[in-house]
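Entry 14. Ran structure prediction on the chain below.
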Amino acid sequence: MALESSRTAFERTLRSVGGGVGSGLRAAMRPHPLFVREARGAHVWDLDGDRYVDYVMAWGPLVLGHGDPRVLHAVSEVAATMQVVGTGHALEYLAAEAVLEAVPHGDRLLWSNTGTEAVQVALRLARAATGRRRVLKFAKSYHGWHDTVYAGMSENGGDQPAAPGGNGQSPSVLDDLVVARFNDVQLARRILNDSVERDIAAVLIDPVMSNAGVEAPDPEFLSTLRTLCDRHGVVLIFDEVIAGFRIARGGAAEKYGVLPDLSVFGKAMAGGFTQSAVVGRAELIDQVTAGVVHAGTFNANPIALAAVEATMRALADPAVYQTLEEISSEFDVVVGGTLGSVPDRGSFNRVGSLLQYVPPGAATGLHGTGGLWTTILEGMLRRGFLFMPSGKIFLSTAHTTSDIEATADALEKLLR
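Output, structure tokens:
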């Protein structure tokens, strides 16, 4: 793998695009960002024509792999007739019905474009419903880049003032955040028992900490949050932008048996196209007819919704999740076994088809992970295997046993 064309392309992009990448975290790729010219199934080809097994999967959306023919056919049909129209169209309800059919707590939804936008919509609905302003989130959890939630990204303590996640953020909004520890039932109970006094409108939680180690919830944690939110009039919001429709067709509600009031979906819902949604109870969603503003020129654009409907129809086949579980378990056993055969090299956390490399000491986070991952990242790229700088790994139905065996073989050679 020469990577020379990608290096040249990155140097050129730096002259016109801030940071040289479309999304900042991509710059953490080593030795430099990969530039791709083609993607099919579980593989991408770089500008030199070299092929890679892709475990990035567009940072999560591609449960069905690159270029699924069902999605591409639906999109191409609609693209030939309309793009953005600024009016209603049939796909608004067809795609919505396909999503709501899958989500156990889905009465209604609101369309948006990105996960960051949809989280803001969900919080606005919660504040309108409760008349309160503060949000309880959990340390290290990522809910988009917006000032109001991009904070508390590194704290290990709980019930502490939220620290901004980066430069240039407005400090005035941080007072709206209360930060707790994931899976700390006693701390959550103590904070939520004072919900009225603390002015807490919502609990915002990624049920599997997708960007902070892929940590699954303890059995009683989500159910305790549900009970406390009901008791104290707080809106429970699941941020399922990454996990939703990846860990189960019905998302975290199906997998863990706890129904939130609202869920935020994105990524896997649209099969590689840009779309998100806030899904949940009708009385919360319908506040948009009574003074809660929800807007966006590109919300519910026909091309994206064609992708949503086609993807959700494909995901309705139980064989999809059986395949995802089998291939993900195989990766965990085979590649994880190779990793575990060398002392102090780390391991994988796994929830469904979402995995995370965890080094000794378990230091993981949005911006990267410790241990050998930087070495693995670059070494595997040079052998034809594409991973993420953060250590997250996404599997798809397009990955095969051959891909996994080749990955394990390359990793064994690298570690040796």
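The first strand starts at residue 36 and ends at 40. Will compare against last week's run tomorrow.
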